[in-house]
Specification:
Layout: H1 2-31, H2 36-51, E1 55-62, E2 67-73, E3 85-87, H3 91-99, E4 103-105, E5 127-135, E6 138-147, H4 155-230, H5 233-265, E7 272-276, H6 277-291, E8 295-301, E9 306-310, H7 311-327, E10 333-341, E11 345-352, H8 373-377, H9 386-396, E12 400-406, E13 409-417, H10 420-431
Parallel strand pairs: 8-10
Antiparallel strand pairs: 1-2, 1-6, 2-3, 4-5, 5-6, 7-9, 10-11, 11-13, 12-13
Helix pairs in contact: 1-2, 1-4, 2-4, 4-5, 5-7, 6-7, 7-9
The structure holds adenosine-5'-diphosphate.
Length: about 425
């Protein structure tokens, strides 16, 4: 009795030892850089070596299709990998998956549950042991071992293969997760690469457009100016009309460029310099005044205002606000431009006597493609890009931009921080 117990203990110990050394090899392999397919291949090779069988096949459960798919085999025809699929309960594999228990078959030729798949080379095998691979109470696959000779799988062998399958569950799940993550990463890498290429394309387009549009525009403008100085009456008026249309076209091109630049770079690149904002406003206001005969532009400046800004971008803000003041006052009227130097900031405001705005939609006018109801009611054409760009530019300079309704029109204003040197000087002035 004692001898029997110690023999059983010895066999048990040997089995545990085989199991452990098998696992030790698999864990070592799975920790190496092998791919999912290579890992599965090693698992089945190690399994036939450890069990003394001739073939091992792994079917893994695919939740999306609700089938067990032949994922690795070292004895069946390789074409079947990824192709042979068995539903829950279908064939021996499906049966083991559904029942969640092992099935040992002495001779598959007389087993009604066995499914013969043409050209899969199953004919050469006689006996078969099929065990479920279960992870956290869920069947994640089925492992089959087969022999070419007639073989009766003992309880011990069934326990051994089941133990291997039990240990494999976690490794397979982890490896599948890893494979999925790698596939996802690859997809994202491709997406980033194509976006980068797209962005590079956009930047090229940007510089091409900026060159190709601006060039002819400025040539056309200088010809028109030259003609205008020599013409009188109706002909001069026609030239003025062309000039103001060119001015609109120029503003549209500038807005389009800035909007493309924003999309391609996600942020504006500023080329900062210190300048007198009042001077810049004066120059732009004079330029605008020339465009329209029915608008009267006045400029009020309370002091010189040194700011550190990107000249061309702040110019674009002024062109947009002044251009809008004209465009949205179709009947003409006064346009009042104020440069108001305060303690830390300077405020520039443009007030017109035009169609006005609805106070409730003031903030939404600065959104991309934002357009007001009144503009639509009056049938004034636009794209809702100018104020959006102004907001990006002003905020990139740490300033604010806003709109308010005023009696008989509207007021669009923005602030910019004064240059550091200016702030101190202003305080001294106000203390005196
Ligand atoms: P666009 O003029 O091309 O539509 P903007 O972004 O410059 O684009 O202006 C957005 C909207 O803000 C305009 O469609 C208009 O509804 C409103 N808006 C802008 N300026 C004025 C203004 N001076 N008076 C009235 N509404 C204005």
């Amino acid at each position: 009795m004692t001898d029997e117990v110690s023999a059983a203990n010895q066999a048990d110990l040997e089995r545990r030892l085989r199991e452990l050394s098998f696992l030790e090899r698999i864990v070592r392999v799975s920790a190496s850089t092998l791919t999912h397919a290579a890992l599965l291949r090693t698992i089945i090779d190690e399994t036939i070596a450890a069990t003394g069988t001739q073939v091992c096949s792994l079917y893994l459960w695919e939740e999306s299709e609700k089938v067990f798919t032949l994922t690795a085999t070292n004895g069946l025809a390789q074409w079947g990998v990824g192709q042979v699929k068995l539903g829950l309960g279908e064939g021996v594999t499906g049966w083991v998956g559904a029942q969640q228990k092992p099935l040992s078959i002495r001779d598959v030729r007389s087993e009604p549950r066995f499914t013969w798949v043409p050209n899969l080379d199953q004919e050469q095998f006689v006996s078969m042991l099929s065990v479920p691979i279960i992870s956290r109470d869920r069947v994640v696959g089925v492992m089959n071992v087969q022999t070419t000779e007639d073989h009766d799988f003992s309880d011990e062998e069934i326990a051994f293969v089941s133990a291997i399958a039990g240990q494999l569950a976690g490794i397979i799940e982890l490896s599948q997760l890893h494979e999925r993550a790698a596939r996802q990463l690859e997809l994202e890498r491709k997406a980033v690469a194509s976006l980068t290429a797209l962005n590079a394309g956009k930047s090229d387009l940007l510089s091409m457009l900026s060159h190709d549009f601006r060039g002819p525009l400025s040539i056309a403008k200088s010809y028109v100016h030259g003609l205008m100085s020599r013409l009188t009456g109706d002909e001069r008026e026609a030239c003025e009309e062309i000039d103001s249309e060119l001015e609109i076209l120029e503003k549209m091109v500038d807005n389009l460029m800035l909007s493309l630049q924003l999309e391609a770079q996600h942020a504006l690149v500023l080329d900062l310099e210190e300048l007198d904002l009042a001077e810049l406003v004066r120059a732009q206001a004079r330029r605008v005044e020339r465009i329209s005969a029915v608008h009267h532009v006045t400029i009020e400046v309370n002091a010189a205002c040194e700011v550190r800004v990107d000249r061309s971008k702040i110019q674009a803000v002024l062109v947009n606000l002044l251009g809008n003041a004209i465009k949205y006052s179709p009947k003409g009227g006064a346009i009042r431009v104020r440069v108001d130097r305060q303690a830390e900031v300077v405020e520039v405001s443009v007030t017109d006597q035009g169609i006005g705005i609805d106070e409730r939609e003031a903030a939404s006018l600065f959104a991309r493609y934002g357009r007001g109801d009144k503009a639509l009611e009056h049938g004034i054409r636009g794209h809702g890009l100018g104020l959006f760009i102004c907001k990006q530019i002003v905020e990139a300079h740490d300033g604010h931009i806003y709109a308010r309704k005023v009696h008989g029109g509207s007021c669009f204003a923005f602030t910019l921080p004064l240059a550091e040197t200016e702030k101190g000087r202003h305080q001294l002035t106000s203390e005196r």
